[in-house]
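Hey, quick one: can you model this chain's 3D structure?
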Amino acid sequence: MIYELRVYEVMPGKMGALNKRFAEITHGYFQKYGIKEIGYWTAMIGTSGELTYMLSYPDLAAREKAWAAFGADAQRQKEFAETEKDGPLVARIHSSILSPTAYSPLK
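Sure thing. Here's the predicted structure for all 107 residues.
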């Protein structure tokens, strides 16, 4: 199992819209393409204006296949475009692919 840690730097004033998109749109497409959601977080203390989340996949090939299908989905593209009609929701995306250590409780 591998994990992907993603941090979105959210455009000012757009956190509500981004959270709504994840809850109402993105979640369904992640399920459709086998992208397993581990969790989502916003900072209580520390850097604000970021949405951090973690995903898991069986391996890198599964990740690449899932993201290719997610990215190519015309209906998803249309729904995302509608959420950004008043401007982008995300300024930058940071992504790290992580492999658990032998002693990690999460394998």
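One thing worth noting: The CA atoms of residues 9 and 50 lie 5 Å apart.
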